[in-house]
Amino acid sequence: MQLTSLKDDFEHGLKDLYSAEEQLIEALPKMAKAATNAKLQSAFEKHLEVTRAQLERVQEVGKSLGVTVTGHTCEGMKGIVKEGNSIIKEGKKGDGLDAALIGAAQRAEHYEIAAYGTAVAHAKELGHTDVARKLQKTLEEEAKANEMLTKIAESSVNQMAEA
User: Taking CA 69 as the corner, what is the angle to CA 84 and CA 121, rounded to the nearest 5 degrees?
Assistant: First the structure.
């Protein structure tokens, strides 16, 4: 697909988002299993359910616009997930790994926040008000997940990892 218009970029972004969510659905259980902090494990497990709903939402958006969102790989998320897998492989189970997992998860959340923010702006500009609302909901969920990870890090994990 050649990107020659805002519409093209928007559709490409939707495909990236779908792929990113798919990749996270595969990565989050591994992160939960690697974590030792109960709050962190729970946060990963809860976000997995949210991510499944987000994947469905992107698919619904694509369908409503006549855009096939499957069959594409988000290379940005692929790199972030690869880095997360390296952290799991190289880390020793415990507080230090938990802190590293939070960092890896926040990199994924920040990527998604940027991507969904762009998608919302493009949807609005293209006159897709309902689509923008749906994508905004996901953007807010991603920001909430990021905030939760920060709370877990600042309330206990970072101090434990420092010791």
Answer: 85
Tens digits of per-residue pLDDT, 53-92? 999 999 999 999 999 999 999 999 999 999 999 999 998 8
Give the range of the structural domain holding residue 47, as residue numbers without chain letter. Answer: 6-65+72-162
What is the dihedral sign for C-alpha 145, 68, 81, 78?
Answer: negative
Give tens-digit pLDDT for 104-162. 999 999 999 999 999 999 999 999 999 999 999 999 999 999 999 999 999 999 988 88
* Structural domains counted in the chain: 1
The answer as to whether 1 is a domain residue is no
Q: Does this model's pTM top 0.85?
A: yes
Structure tokens at 10: 């928007």
Angle, helix 129-152 to helix 95-125, in steps of 10 degrees: 160
Looking up residue 151, the CATH number of its domain turns out to be 1.20.1260.10
Amino acid at position 21, single letter: E
Q: Is 41 domain-assigned?
A: yes
Instruction: Give counts: helices (H), strands (E), the chain.
Output: 6, 0
